[in-house]
Structures are given as structure tokens and as C-alpha cells.
Amino acid sequence: MSSPTDLEQSILRTLCWFAVFDQSITGFEIWKWLVEPARAYDLSEVYRVLEGSEWVKSRVQEEGGYYVLHSPSPYKGEGRGEVLRREAVSLRSRNYLDATKKFRKLKRASHYFRLFSSTRAVAAVNSIAWMNTNEKSDIDLFVVTKPKSIWSTRFWMVAPFIALRKRPGASNQDPFCFSFFATSNALAMDHLRLKEGDHYFAFWLKSIVPMFDHDGHLEKLQDENAWADHMLPNASPRTVHPLHKTSLTFPTFPTFPTFQTFYRSLSQKRFPIAIRNLANKDSRVVISDDMLKFHETDRRAEFEEAYCTFVKQTMV
To answer: What spatial distance separates the first Cα and last Cα of the chain, rounded to whole Å?
Structure first.
């Protein structure tokens, strides 16, 4: 058998990445998320390979319009385990419905987030952005604030969710996770990438779902992290979906930027010990006046290792 073409290999790399999370994907999604192709390929070219390449067919199974790898997952993350191929399709359908429910809650919450003039953009990230959540999944957010307002903005955004016990650890159903804030001056994030490879961060950047975006800050985020375009050249940034738009308008309120020292001190007193111990030691937990990133359980290295294992298994 002749050596696989660049497109065949890119298709397999893409399926390898999603197999890490036991996730099945459509042919369109394979095209959109093509991993590191040598050139831009048309959607028709991708379908032609999926339908006609014996090399790909020997490694891939199609079920109801969804594609998965034949080989079992080498990654056994917490709560995942090995999922049978047919079950992966059914699981995705259930998770899609759960994510739809979460987006309705997030849309309602976005009315509140828009009240503050310092909140410039709010986006859904991680599993909810992929429409792949279960009942216990968090509603993860990425927030862009005005400069010199990050501490006060986070305080006023998070306060009612603490009071209502709608935060991770306090609620087992649809908790809101405010784990990543950045000011409009800190949207270049190359320094957060893992040196040994970080496909997860590229997918994270390209998958964020805007809820609202004043002045195009999420577009700026994409522009200032163009390195992700080389990994995922077909993945165009998302815009605010009509179903997520908040049509109601309210007067906005300041979050008192002159009192940042007060809000910083108040917030830091509530930080868990794990956050304090990891602060600014690497890219997991970043605490500054321009970025607040609280990912003490950062599994990017595990995902990258699992992906590399998958690629080695399927490319032979």
C-alpha cells in the first residue's frame, strides 16, 4: 500500500485528537478541525477521502454520519473510561441536549454580566463550548475586562453566584465557573502554551463561544494568537449566535476601578490554599492585575501525551 497523503494523515490526526475525549465527529467537523494540514483543503476533498480512501477506512468507522477510530482509546481520564464507538454517538446526542439547557441559563446570566461597563466580553469555553456536557459539568467562562478593572469586575460578577451557591463545589448541577479573566491589554497568550506541544490550547482558542463582545475584543484575542491558525487553519472564530444574543438593554454601572487594591485584597483572602501555592509558578495559575487564570487541575500535558500515543498507533 502506498504511503498516506497529507490529507489522509491530517484527517487521522484530527480523529486522534477527538478520540482522546471519546468523541465522535461529523465529516464537516473533521474538515473544520483539520489538524496541521500542509495546505487548505475543500470540504469536498475531505469527504472524498473519507468515502474512498482504503487507508482511512481501515482505521475509521462511520456510524450515523459520525466518525470514530477503530482502535480503543489509550486515554483513561477520570469519569471517561473507554466508550464503545456506537455509544459515543448516543452519548454525544445526550450531552448536546444538556449543553443546550446550560446555554439557556448562561444567556439569562449574561443579562447580569452586561450590567457592568468594565465587562467587555463574555464567552463560553471548554465542554459547554463543544456542546458536550453532562449534568455535573461546569458552565465555564472566559471574561475580558477593561484595564485596571479586573479585580472589581470579577468580584461583582461572582458575588451573586456565591450567595446562591451556584459555584463549583457548592452545586452539583450547572455551576458557573469564573476561572479565566483577562484585561483587553493581556490577550496575547503565547506565554501560556506548553513548550512540549499544546493542541488543547489551540482548540480552546478556536472553540470559544461569544455571549457578547463589546468592541471586538474576542476578535482581537484571535488576532493576537495567530499561532493557533497554523495548527487549525480551517477553524474560523465563532461569532455571537442569534440564540445567545441578549436583546434587552439596561443601564450599565461602574465597578469602581479606583478601588482595585481593596477588591484584590478581598478576593485573595478567599483563594484556596492550592491556588495560593501554585500562583505564578507556571501557566496553570496566573494572578496579576491583567490576568486571573485559575486552572490548578491542568490536564493539557496528559491530553497531549494521549494524542501522541493515538497518532503512533493509527499511523502505522
So the answer is: 12
Give the pLDDT of the chain (316 residues) as one tens digit per residue: 579 999 999 999 999 999 998 888 999 999 999 999 999 899 999 999 999 999 999 999 988 888 999 865 544 444 433 444 566 667 778 899 999 999 999 999 999 999 999 999 999 999 999 999 998 899 999 999 999 999 999 999 999 999 999 998 887 789 999 999 999 999 999 999 999 899 999 999 999 999 999 989 999 999 999 999 999 999 998 877 777 776 655 556 666 667 889 999 999 998 999 999 999 999 999 999 999 999 999 999 999 999 999 999 998 8
Asked if 180 and 34 sit in the same domain, the reply is: no
Cα–Cα distance measured from residue 66 to residue 85, given in angstroms and rounded to the nearest whole number: 10
Domain that holds residue 153: 99-298
DSSP-assigned states of every residue in 65-77: TEEEESSPPS---
Residue with cell 447580569: 112
pTM of the model: 0.89
Q: Would residue 1 count as lying in a domain?
A: no
Residues 6+ apart with CB under 8 A from 190: 225, 227
Q: Which long-range contacts (CB under 8 A, 24 or more apart) does 33-38 make?
A: 33/203, 33/206, 33/232, 33/234, 33/235, 34/10, 34/232, 34/233, 34/234, 35/10, 35/199, 35/231, 35/232, 36/10, 36/230, 36/231, 37/6, 37/7, 37/10, 37/233, 37/234, 38/6, 38/10
Q: Kindly report the three-state secondary structure assignment for every residue of 214-247.
A: HHHHHHHHHHCCCHHHHHCCCCCCCCCCHHHCCC
Q: How many domains are contained in the chain?
A: 2
Task: Name the CA dihedral angle for 137, 150, 286, 201, rounded to a multiple of 10 degrees.
Answer: 50
Tell me, what DSSP letter sits at residue 178? E
Same domain, 260 and 215: yes
